[in-house]
Amino acid sequence: MNRMSMINAFDPTRSDALDPTTRSLIERRLRVLGPAYRLFYEEPLHLVRGEGVWLYDANGAAYLDAYNNVASLGHAQPDVVRAISEQSATLVTHTRYLHEGILRLAERLLATMPAEMGHVMLTCTGSEANDLAYRLARTVTGNRGVIVTNLAYHGVTQAVAEFSPSLGAGVPIGNHVRVIPPPDAYHSDGDVATQFAQSVTAAAADLSAAGHGLAMFIVDSIFSSDGVYADPPGFLAPAVAAARAAGGIYVADEVQPGFGRTGAAMWGFERHGLIPDLVTMGKPMGNGYPVAALVAQPRHLEKFGRDARYFNTFGGNPVAAAAANAVLDVIEREHLIRHAAEVGAYLLKGLSELADRHPRIGDVRGAGLFVGAELVQDRASREPDRDLATQVVNGLRQRRILLSASGPGGNILKIRPPLAFQRPHADTLLSALDEVLTLG
After folding, report:
1. What are phi and psi of 259, to 5 degrees?
2. Per residue in 388-440, pLDDT tens?
3. Helix ranges (DSSP H) in 334-410
4. Is 334 exposed, middle or buried (0-12, 13-18, 19+ CB in 10 A)?
5. How far apart, in whole angstroms, are the C-alpha atoms of residue 87 and residue 93?
6. How many Cα atoms sit within 13 Å of 323 on the Cβ side?
């Protein structure tokens, strides 16, 4: 089991404490799906429906979703559902035929990017997009080394799993991969931007000495698995410069922070004033429909496109394009980037006020509707409090509020609700968190 999922995962040995229906479902699941799958929470949820920011269990009870960014706009968002349904009833095929939908999507995505970004390649998942990014990076640089942060998650293909250390010791990183500490200003006494860049430089030198060289430096622009590190804006730029000086390219993994979630702009890398070499995206792109993409500077695709062909049976099919175009429509029409900034600021303020009353909240940080709250044993030592985080995550679940925890200490509450999240929803979350911490 990976280090993150252990924080709030169900322990199968405790199934006797559950009601008969839940226990039966768990037993069936283990029998037919095998042991590699995991369930959230000490008391797993049997969900049957979603709408907006709410998820509903088999008994009709509503749970406030403050965690799932797959349905980024909100569960069962009507415009996306309609677009998928209508296109499914019209045409489902691949990208070897001309179709308006994929072209419109590519043009719209490029319009949100720096002018240097010029080509879009469609995949089904963020894992596939990052796998393709690695192929491109190796082609462009002639190197094979990768630099990632300590608890990064970039996907589950064979190549990408080797640079996804959050998958745990059972999925070892490749010998061509170097991991570096995340830009953790809370636990650092110095300039986090300088320290992070120095770590990149040292890792690149080690890769060179080992004969790998540096192909790419890939980071999730909000460092979600490492513990949510957003500030100060711009801290990432020196590290990117260091990677490029070592011969590598910079890949902005926007699967988590992309599509307006950070509130400052459409993409997380924009908060740092950067122009990536490659950008990858997934999860929220189709609001639940499997669609993902890689966006590249054209110069990086010249050799690859000349020497190799790219084809993906389902990536970029007309239904995927319709879903993604509908997502962009809703983001634009409902001004969700601005909304994420405003509601996120309100949530951060509320969490900071809670921290004034609860000293075991050591730090509150984030951008837009991607927020982390670090729980500590005491503020003087800043020692992580994993047990408290487990208690809080499961205590909130009992109060029908869903979130999770991340970070190497498993003590950082990870809050990233659908973008339909409103101030009253934030108030509900804050009130319940206050209650759980008071009882704790």
Report:
1. 60, 45
2. 999 999 999 999 999 999 999 999 999 999 999 999 999 999 999 999 999 87
3. 336-357, 386-398
4. middle
5. 11
6. 29
The β-bridge relationship of strands 119-123 and 292-296 is antiparallel
Whether the CB-CB separation of 435 and 429 falls below 8 Å is answered with no
Name the residue with tokens 């084809």. Answer: 311
Cα 255 off chain centre by:
5
Sheet with 404-406, side-by-side order of all strands: 361-367, 370-375, 412-415, 404-406
**Bridge-based pairing state of the strands 62-65 and 401-402:** parallel
Which of these ranges, 32-46, 203-217, 288-302, 335-349, has the smallest mean pLDDT?
Answer: 32-46
The total of other beta-carbon atoms located within 10 Å of residue 14's CB is: 10
| Cα 244–chain centre separation | 24
Please tell me the distance from the alpha carbon of residue 107 to that of residue 122, in angstroms, as a whole number: 13
Q: Are 168 and 136 in contact, with CB atoms under 8 Å apart?
A: no
DSSP category for residue 263: S
**Contact between residue 402 and residue 55 where contact means Cβ atoms under 8 Å apart:** yes
**What residues does 51 pair with on adjacent strands?**
54
Range 265-276 burial, b when 16+ CB lie within 10 A, else e: bbbbbbbbebbb
Beta bridge partners of 404: 414
Please state, as a whole number, how many other Cβ atoms lie within 10 Å of the Cβ of residue 90.
10
| Number of CB atoms found within 10 A of residue 174's CB | 15
| DSSP letter for each residue of 301-334 | HHHHHHH-----SSTT-HHHHHHHHHHHHHHHHT
pLDDT in tens, 236-256: 999 999 999 999 999 999 999
Q: How far is CA 171 from CA 198, 226, 434, in A?
A: 27, 17, 37
The tokens describing 7, both together, are 């924080």
Terminal CA-CA length for the chain:
26
- For the chain, list the domains and their CATH numbers: 5-76+336-439 (3.90.1150.10), 78-333 (3.40.640.10)
Owner of token pair 């970029």: 316
